[in-house]
Design brief:
222 residues; alpha/beta; Spore Coat Polysaccharide Biosynthesis Protein SpsA, Chain A; seven-stranded mixed sheet; 7 helices; globular; binds cytidine-5'-monophosphate
Amino acid sequence: MTIALIVAAGSGERLGADRPKALVEVAGRPMLQWSIDALAAMGEVQRIVVALPPGTHAPPGVIGVDGGSTRSESVRRALAAAGDGDPVIVHDAARPLLTPALAREVTGALQRDEQAAAAIAAAPVSDTIKRVDAGGAVSETLARDSLWAVQTPQVFRRGALERALDVSEDLLAVATDDAWLVERSGGRVIVVNVSGENLKVTTPLDLEVAALLLARRSPEQP
Ligand code: C5P
C-alpha cells in the first residue's frame, strides 16, 4: 500500500502572513488541508504523515511529526514515522491544488516503469531560461526544449528514498527536491507532464490565484 508524506514545516516568509504558510486559509480551509483531503481521497493511500511547524497539532486523520530545519530533513522525519508502505508519495503543502487524479498519474507512471526509482510531477518550461552572473549580466541561455520545471508530488520506491535520504545534513540542506538525492546516486527518475493548475504558493499573488482556482471546485471535490 502507498503512504504519503506532506512537508508543511516551512515558515513561508515570502508570503508575509501572520502564521506558517501551510496554515494560512485558502478558499475556506488551511492550505495544508487541501493536500490532505486530496491524498485521503485516494483509496490506495493507507497513511498520511505531515511534517509540521514545531508546536502545531496534527489535523485529524494524519500522523504529525515536527519538521526539520530543511525541507529534506522534514521528509526524513516524516518517513521515519510512517511505518510500512511502498511506494511513498512526497508532497509539498505549498501546492494545495493537488488532485487525486494528478497524484494517480504520477504513481501510475512509476508502476509502469520497472527500472525507475522515482516518478515526479513536472511541466516543460515556457519561459526562456538564462544563467545570470553576480553582476546581473547574462552568461548563458539554456536550450529550452530539454528543460522542465519540477513540482510535487514525487513518488518513490521506498528503498530508493530511504537510501537517498541516508546522507549528511549538509547534503540534505542543499537539496531543493528529493528526486535530486536519488539522481545523484544514479537512480532513474522519470517526469510526468502535469502542465496545468498545480501551482506552488510562494507570494501573495500565488495565494490569490490558488484561492480563485480552489473556490471554483465543487464542495465534495478534494
Ligand atoms: O521553501 P519551499 O517553499 O521550497 O518549501 C517547500 C515545502 O517544504 C513547503 O510545503 C514547506 O512547508 C516545506 N518545508 C518543510 N520543512 C522545512 C522547509 C520547508 O517541511 N524546513
